[in-house]
Amino acid sequence: MPRRRRAGEGDRPLYMISVAAQLAGVHPQTLRIYERRLLVQPQRSAGNTRLYSDADIDRLRLIQQLTQAEGINLAGVERILELEDERTHLEQEARQLRAIVEAMRRRFAEAAAARAAVVRTEITLAPRGGLQRRYQR
């Protein structure tokens, strides 16, 4: 399953594979392995050169932390990153839903205020054949 990229300033492709490997503290071949495992997805230049963003470098450092310091294998890292991506997605969705709920609350409050301000009119037949209006509040 492809990883979702986070939109933002850190997504601008800046570093070729050798620089990215050095910044992340890994061998360039390790980055190729991570790419094959879909742990990281660098962007590509017009000449098909891998270009890594600051967000990619942060992700690579996290992978290194998990594999080296925590002793987690790549399958475990993959699952952790999937869960992290899903958590991020769910947080965004929750923010959107909270905004929708708040907008609906405002609209309901406005509608209730408008209803309270409306004078209800009831039309009934008058005993002498005419119409009579009664106003209710």
Task: Provide an overview of this structure.
- The structure is a single chain.
- The chain is mainly alpha-helical.
- The protein folds into 2 domains: 7-72, Orthogonal Bundle (Multidrug-efflux Transporter Regulator, Chain: A, Domain 2), CATH 1.10.1660.10; 74-137, no CATH class.
- Helix content is 56%, strand content 12%.
- The chain has 4 helices and 4 strands.
- The protein has helices spanning 17-24, 28-36, 54-69, 74-117; strands at residues 43-44, 50-51, 120-125, 131-136.
The count of β-strands is 4
Q: Estimate the helix proportion, in percent.
A: 55-70%
Q: What's the end-to-end separation, in Å?
A: 60 Å
> What is the CA-based Rg, rounded?
30 Å
Strand order of the largest sheet: 1-2
What's the number of helices?
A: 4
Shape, principal axes of CA atoms: elongated
By CATH, the architecture of the largest domain is named Orthogonal Bundle
> Poorly predicted ranges (pLDDT <50, ≥5 residues)?
1-6
Largest sheet: 2 strands, antiparallel
Under CATH at level 1, the class of the largest domain stands as Mainly Alpha
Structural class: mainly alpha
Count of spatially separate domains: 2
Give the SSE order as H and E letters.
HHEEHHEE
